[in-house]
Amino acid sequence: MTIPLVVGLDGSEASLAAVDWAAAEAVRHGVPLHLVHVTAGDRDASALTGAAAERVRRSAPALPLTSEVLHGDPATALVGEGHDAFALVLGFRGLGDLDAMLLGSVGLAVAARAECPVVVVRGAAGHREERPGSVVVGVENGEGSGTAVAFAFREAEVRHCELVVVHAWTAPLDAHATAQAPSWALEAHRRPPAQVLDDALRGLTERYVDVPVTRRVVEGPARRELLAAASGADLLIVGAPRRHGHPGLQLGLVGHAMLHHAPCPVAVVPRT
Prior knowledge:
The protein has two domains: 5-121, HUPs (Rossmann fold, 3-Layer(aba) Sandwich); 128-270, Rossmann fold. The protein contains ten helices and ten strands. It has helices at residues 13-29, 46-59, 74-81, 105-113, 125-130, 146-159, 193-201, 204-207, 222-229, 252-261; strands at residues 5-8, 33-39, 65-71, 87-91, 118-121, 134-138, 162-169, 213-219, 235-240, 266-270. Strands 3-2-1-4-5-10-9-6-7-8 form a ten-stranded mixed beta sheet, sandwiched between helices. The longest helix is centred in the N-terminal third of the chain and has 17 residues, at 13-29.
């Protein structure tokens, strides 16, 4: 049986936006959609899940659809649902009138603990509906980006859009270096930034021959460069390595920044 795309539902406008995004995503990938509402009490949530299901049926009447009400801690329950999920989709939760709509504690906990990709549906509705037509993925130096890059190629393929692959690098202030040939002594053991990007793409460009790829090797903070690249994107993707000796993922400063401030939906992809 095909594993479903799971979307968390709490009745807020943010979660309804996540339902809309998840329904379109499930149709693109040909997977069923599963709506989940988690409550800590005993109140009847059938009206909430029923309204969300009707919303999906109006936009995607042929999409296989199920729903479920769980009881307990929301983050723990959603992480459990992610054990056998294509991905988990959540809405962001705003705080007051802040321009940068911050992710709530449940969403952050799920993103840091889930075993499957987690998508937080951020960005204004107009931005999402305009479908700017690109997928952006960040590539870091090391082994943490391979799964994220493969996920990004798949997302670009089903959207028939451009993939923008970004590797941001910085050198010590007193170093004389270029992206092709870093020369500072303390970093001599690292791969040149351009090589980092080449290694991340190896094999995937041949597999996804119909996906146009734009490579960006830029000198600067990764948070700034990824947010800039995502300003016109459908989806921003970041990888997350496993914590050594502890459960969950190492989201890092870049992952946290994207989840809290990205102008478009953000996918956190665990390293496998």
